[in-house]
Amino acid sequence: MTIAPASLVGEAFIGQGPNAAHTNIVIGRKGGPVETAWATALASPSAGYAPFVTVIRPNVPVKPLTLFVNKAEPAGETHQRATWGAAQAGLARGIADAVEHGLIPAQDVDDLLLIAAVWVNPEVDDLDESFRNQRVAAFRAVAAAVSSAPDVNEVLATAQEGPANPFYTPDADQLAASSPAAEATR
């Protein structure tokens, strides 16, 4: 099986509270647009945001080579340890899990690159929970990417229920007042 003719995108949000993990994944072949984005991000750090190659252990990068991109500027020692330590370790293990389970064919790992944009809450307080959540989030994001999940029917059905996330959920009145049909009557 050939994976990622151009690029695949997936995401997963796992856990609750300050130790939750939100991971966005882009998978692509070397020589394509993902390689350009990967190299550009690696070569373009900014204050508080320094993408780096994810390692299982020092000198052992996970395969496919995975760029860790933090979505939150490090804020304090625990947040730094969670970002560079627990979340990186969870990401590395989750990607290795995806290869072990055949989501990413082992024979393709040297031809692929992966970009992972990883959210670690600045209020993180449990490195072990952060690791566990990131491991599962990485695996599920890869699974979503390679299966093109969710399909459009699931997206539309969920949209009918109304959007929700840990930071905001509109109530029924707000959903009705903000609909395109309501706007057309104004």
Describe this entry's structure for a reader.
The chain is α+β, with helices and mostly antiparallel strands. Helices cover 41% and strands 21% of the residues. It has 6 helices and 7 strands, in the order ββαββββαβαααα. The longest helix has 24 residues, at 77-100. The mean pLDDT is 93.
Task: Provide a quick synopsis of the model.
The protein contains six helices and seven strands.
Layout of secondary structure:
Layout: E1 7-14, E2 21-29, H1 33-42, E3 52-53, E4 55-57, E5 60-61, E6 65-70, H2 77-100, E7 112-120, H3 127-147, H4 152-161, H5 172-177, H6 180-184
Parallel strand pairs: 6-7
Antiparallel strand pairs: 1-2, 2-7, 3-6, 4-5
Helix pairs in contact: 2-3
Primary descriptors:
186 residues; alpha+beta; five-stranded mixed sheet; two-stranded antiparallel ribbon; 6 helices; 21% strand
Strand order of the largest sheet: 1-2-7-6-3
Measured distance between first and last alpha carbons: 53 Å
How large is the radius of gyration? 18 Å
Query: Helical region count?
Result: 6
How would you spell out the order of helices and strands? EEHEEEEHEHHHH
- Beta-strand content estimate: 15-25%
Largest sheet: 5 strands, mixed
Structural class: alpha+beta
The number of distinct β-strands equals: 7
**Spans with pLDDT under 50 lasting ≥5 residues?**
none
- Global shape: globular
Percent helix, as a range, is 40-55%
Mean pLDDT, all residues:
93
